[in-house]
Amino acid sequence: MHAAVVTSFDTPPHYQRFPTPTPRAADEVVLDVLASGLHPRVRSQANGSHYTSTRELPLVPGIDGVGRAPDGSLRYFVLFDTVMGAMAERTLVDPRRSVVLPEGSDPVSVAAAMNPAMSSWVALRRRIDFAPGQAVLVLGATGAAGRLAVQVAKHLGAGRVIGAGRRPDRLATLTDLGADATVLLDGDAAENLGRAAGDVDVVLDYLWGPVTAAVMPAVVTNRADPGTPLTWIEIGSVAGRSAAIPSAALRAARLSIVGSGQGSVPTDDIMAELPELAAEIANGTFTIDARAVPLTDVEAAWTNSAGTERVVITP
Question: Is residue 167 domain-shared with residue 88, that is, in the same domain?
Answer without folding.
Answer: no
